[in-house]
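Ticket #4471: structure output looks truncated?

Reporter: J.K.
Steps to reproduce: submitted the chain below (347 residues) through the standard prediction queue, then opened the result file.
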Amino acid sequence: MKQRLLCVLLAAALCLSALTGCEKTPEPVEFSTFAMNTFMSFTFYGGDEKENQRVQDRMNVTLRRLDSLLCVNNESGDVNQINRGAGRKTKVDTLTAELLSQSLELCRLTGGALDITAYPAVKAWGFTQEEHRVPAPDELEALAEKIDYSAVRLEGDTVTLPEGMELELGAVAKGYAGDVLAETVRASDIPSALLDLGQSTIMAVGTKPGGVPWRIGVVDPAQPGSYFAVVELQDMAMGTSGGYQRYFEQDGETYWHILDPDTAAPARSGLASVTVVSPSAFLCDGLSTALFVMGLEEGAQLWRDHPELEFEVIFVTEKGELYRTAGLEGRFSLAEGYEGREVVVLE
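Returned output as attached by the reporter:
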C-alpha cells in the first residue's frame, strides 16, 4: 500500500514539473497610434483580453487629451492659448500645469541648456514646417534675446508669458506622456509592457515575460539604421537626442533641430548623440536634449552633481568616441559588430 501511494505521489510530482517547465510565454498584445506628431507603438504581456482593451482605451484617451492640450498648432489647446495670450494670464489644464512646472524646474537645473521658450527660433530655422533656411546673424541675435524660461510665470494653473515670447514643449511632451501612460499600465493587471513613444523615447514597464530585462538598442548616429549598444531596462525609460534625427544641409553645412538657447542656432557641442536612462521618461527626454547642448564635460559634471535625479548617460561624440556613466555597469553592452570599440566609463 505504501509503495503504491509513493508511486502515485511521484507521478503527480513529475506531471506538475512537466507542466511548470512547459508553461507558455504569454502572447503579446500590440497596438499603435499617431499622436504628438509621431507614430507610437505599445506591447502588453500577461493581461486578459478585457483588461488589455480597457488599458488600451484609457491610454488612447490620455494621448488624445495630451495631444490636444500640448500641440502648439491646436488653437483650442493650452500651449497655443498661452502663446496667443502672451502678456496676460492664461488658465490651463492641470496636466499642462504639471508639465510646465516640471519643465521649468529642469530648465533651471540645466542652466537654461533646455529652454521651452525657444520656439520662435525653431520656427525661424524652418523646422516646424520643414521649409528650412539659415537666419542672418542679426536675426539670430534678436531671437536669442527672446529666449528666457525664467520669464515664464506659473501660479497654480495660471500661466503668464511675456509679450513677444512663445513656448513649445516638444522636447519633453512625449516623455511626460510616457510617465502618465506607464502609471496607467502599473495600475492595471498587466505585469509587463513596452511603450515606444516614437523610437527616440521608450518606457519599459516591469520585465519581459520570464523575468528578464528588456533589451533596447541604442542607435549609432553615424549609421542610424544600426545599433551600437544594447541597454537592459526594467521599470526604466530611455531617451535619445541627436543631430541625425532631424537636419538639413545648405552650402556644405549641416544644421540640426537641437538649438542652443544662448545663440538660437544649432548646438555645436561636439556631440553626435546623447542617451539618458532613468525611471522617468520625462527626464530622459528633457535631459538628453539639454546634455546635447551642454557637451560632454559639462554634461558629465551635471550627472556627478545630481545623483538624486537617478539618471545615467551614454555620450557619442562627433568623432565617434563612446562614453557612458558608471551606473550602467551590468546593463550596457556593445552590439554585434561593435565589440572592439573603446568605451570610456565616467565616474
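Triage note (M.O.): checked the attachment and the full C-alpha cell line is present. The chain is about 35% helix and 30% strand.
Status: closed, working as intended.
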